[in-house]
Amino acid sequence: MSTTQKEQQPKLILHWLEESRAQRIVWLLEELELEYTLKLYHRSQGKAADAALLEKSQLGKSPVLEIESIDSETGQVTTKFVEESGFIISYIIDHFDYSHKLSSLSSEEKELVQFYLHFTEGTFQPFLTFVVVHAVANGMSPFFARFITSKFTQTIDTLYSLKNINLTCEKLEKDLEKNYSQNTSSSQDLFFVSNKITGADIILIFPLEVIFESNRLQDLGFDVSKYPLLAKWVSEIRSRAAYRRSYERVEREGKGQFKIGPPLHNNGA
Ligand SMILES: N[C@@H](CCC(=O)N[C@@H](CS)C(=O)NCC(=O)O)C(=O)O
């Protein structure tokens, strides 16, 4: 990034909630090597976000990207709040991808990225949200009722969520296979669009990490071995330097007091 671009870059403040979708925005900021400030929030009982987030988002959800710009002539400061993961990802790429790392795509590829941004939050994520909410509710229900509530939620999870998660993973596995077979570059890495990292990979890491890293899904009968390319993609993404830096940054700033991974991560929470 040139000095001029750095000087012009507005101040970015990411409102980040533990065990949430917000981690992928930290990863995007790291991929683009941008300067940013993190405001970290805990979850309270029942996994609801700390009420302090209501001061930044009307629904009290994370991520929220606060953008503070200073008019170079008048010195006037304007603050904007950008919400919704898909929109935040598009916004950051459109405004702050100074080296065109994620944005130099054909118009067809850009359309495909848009598809994944909508598909992930609009269709894919709700199937997982059911499973997460059920796991949390079971953990909170009185001990004597837990057997019955967990039987009930397990039936819904299996008949509805797991069925749809499998259909989604079949589609995404085929998408990766198709994109990889069209890849003419020397890169052996897997990506959803083009032969490099795009907003599609950024948005998809959260649900796919929930699925591939969670015992809960596997306890319900999710068979990881049916999706070798998706498993390889998750592992490649997790080993990227920028991805690892995103974890280190939160770990450092949160002094180890905040849970970083996605919900249901190994602990069934
Ligand atoms: N579609 C929104 C969903 C935001 C959302 O529900 N975030 C969750 C974290 S993964 C949250 O803030 N939960 C806390 C709460 O609902 O109190 C997005 O993609 O940003």
Automatic annotation (TrEMBL):
Residue ranges of every copy of the GST C-terminal domain listed in the record: 106-263
Pfam families: GST_C (PF00043), GST_N (PF02798)
Family membership noted in the UniProt record: Belongs to the GST superfamily.
Protein name: Glutathione transferase
Species, as recorded: Wickerhamomyces pijperi
Transmembrane segments: none
Lineage top rank: taxon: Eukaryota
InterPro entries found in the cross-reference section: Glutathione-S-Trfase_C-like, Glutathione-S-Trfase_C_sf, Glutathione_S-Trfase, Glutathione_S-Trfase_N, GST_C, Thioredoxin-like_sf
Ranges for domain GST N-terminal: 9-100
